[in-house]
């Protein structure tokens, strides 16, 4: 997820049993142009397998990106064909490709012809309805996609309503490659439903924000979670990969998710929003936990 699945977030996901992590969306065009901010998004701390998610609409940009040295460390190149955000779609990227099957196929082929890496496609059910989801999925497989991740909403739905589980299963049972279900996966029952009805697994985005242990819960694995330690480590690692000012500002939204549902957590969230430096952010975190306890827990 753009702005959220940074390197520390992915490290925690791996620690709790996530099978494969995916970077934030990275512009294929920006990589080709040597944009340093795009390359900064390629920072990884976690062990593999790791996928880099590219977005764009020009097959040549994808072909050039696939050969770049900075992508060699990734196991999978994932093409975003599902982002519904207006500024992405209006440029012909993301879910705009759902309405341009031939261009989408050329993008997959361009990558397959220039790398031996696994290539995947992240898609939604369609722009406005799901009637063409199966045909689009089959076209991506025919072009060479090795697996698909299907978000169970249309682009126009954004994140409203609920994911259409039936439509996801319809795609999964219609293609010959693994399909991962995405959207509203919150519990083991959701995970089991998809796996028992034709999906290879699930992809979790928003459901893991602030609660990376969700991957362990879905698999009935034992785990220990120390909220304070996780937050401090997250900030420390952000400061390793970007400027302190940027890291602190990025951490603010993570604090809000970590503290969601935590008794008296709003006070820390409000204080964190005023932090300007790493020291200030750490002070707010330590002070809150000194006043409210450790908030660590385990499942054994």
In short:
By secondary structure, this protein is of the alpha/beta class.
Task: Please give a structural write-up.
It is a single chain. This protein is an alpha/beta fold and 300 residues long. It has two domains: 19-203, Alpha-Beta Barrel (TIM Barrel); 224-299. Helices cover 43% and strands 15% of the residues. Helix 11 (227-241) packs antiparallel against helix 14 and helix 13 (265-272) packs antiparallel against helix 14 (278-292). The longest helix is centred in the C-terminal third of the chain and has 15 residues, at 227-241. The model has no long low-confidence stretch (mean pLDDT 95).
- At the first level of CATH, the class of the largest domain is Alpha Beta
CATH topology of the largest domain: TIM Barrel
Q: What is the number of domains? A: 2
Strand content: 15-25%
Query: Using only CA atoms, what is the Rg?
Result: 20 Å
Task: List unreliable stretches of 5+ residues.
Answer: none
* CATH superfamily annotation of the largest domain: Aldolase class I
Spatially, the strands of the biggest sheet line up as: 1-2-3-4-5-6-7
Q: Please identify, by name, the CATH architecture of the largest domain.
A: Alpha-Beta Barrel
Helix and strand topology:
Blueprint: H1 7-15, E1 21-27, H2 28-32, H3 36-40, E2 50-55, H4 59-66, E3 76-81, H5 86-89, H6 101-112, E4 118-124, H7 133-143, E5 147-151, H8 165-172, E6 179-182, H9 188-195, E7 201-203, H10 214-218, E8 223-226, H11 227-241, H12 244-258, H13 265-272, H14 278-292, E9 296-299
